[in-house]
Amino acid sequence: MVYGLRYYFRLIGQNKRAIELPSLKNEIKLPVILNRSELRELFVAPALLKHRIVLTLIYSAGLRGQEVINLKIADIDFERQSIHIRQSKYKKDRIVPLSAYIAMGLKKYIEVEHPHIWLFNGKELDGRYSVRGLSWLMREALKRTSVKKDVNLHSLRHSYATHLLEDGVNIVTLKELPGHPDITTTMIYLHVARCLHIAAHSPLDTLYNKKP
After folding, report:
1. pLDDT tens-digit profile of 179-206?
2. Where in the sequence is the domain holding 142, given as residue range(s)?
């Protein structure tokens, strides 16, 4: 309504009134993440191997829903242990590490399911899985767990980033892995991650790897 009025005032030449209207500010909320125990419970919840692999892959590489359904079999490089994500949200390609654990699961899944072109085939016209289908899968899997948090498919991506911070990955490296356009987007996870705090000290004291 505010921006509609601004447009109207500009249209009738009353720019001063438009300037005086207040700006709309979005609420900044911290992401809800799943802890490691909840993730382990979630990944074994689906009955189908394909569904278990999809959820585990999303967390293992911090993928967006759209990135998952766009993955082709050729984008998985088992030898180099990498995943090539093509033309993502900001029209950029990126390479992310392929977990050794999910690599074993993917090989088994491909051997059993025999996907064609797309890594996860579905009912879309071009043969791909749908983002709506991924969201349904997440909701159904959560019903089979004891998780009470208000989480969704994107929470797996939030959990990925937070857990990497807790594992010691620096914020600059972490910015590139999920494909964030700006580091301020990544910094929100600093408010969620439970990282070890190192007391302030002089680097001279650690220069020789011993205390004075």
Report:
1. 888 888 888 888 888 877 667 777 767 7
2. 36-191
Distance CA 53, CA 47 (A): 11
Q: Could you give the dihedral angle defined by the CA atoms of residues 123, 127, 128 and 130, in that order, rounded to the nearest 10 degrees?
A: -20
Asked if residue 184 is part of any domain, the answer here is yes
> Distance from first CA to last CA of the chain, Å, rounded?
65
| Phi–psi pair at 97, nearest 5 degrees | -65, 145
Query: Can you list the alpha helix ranges (DSSP code H) found in 84-153?
Result: 100-113, 131-143
Sheet holding 94-97, edge to edge: 76-77, 82-85, 94-97
- Please tell me the total number of residues recorded for the chain in this structure: 212
The pLDDT tens digits of the residues spanning 30-79 come to: 899 999 999 999 999 999 999 999 999 999 999 999 999 999 999 999 99
Instruction: List C-alpha distances in Å: 132 to 10, 94, 154.
Output: 40, 24, 12
Give the catalytic positions in this structure: 64, 89, 154, 157, 180, 189
Tell me the C-alpha distance between 211 and 204, whole Å: 9
Q: How many domains does the chain have?
A: 1
Residue from 66, 62, 54, 65 nearest 141 by CA: 54
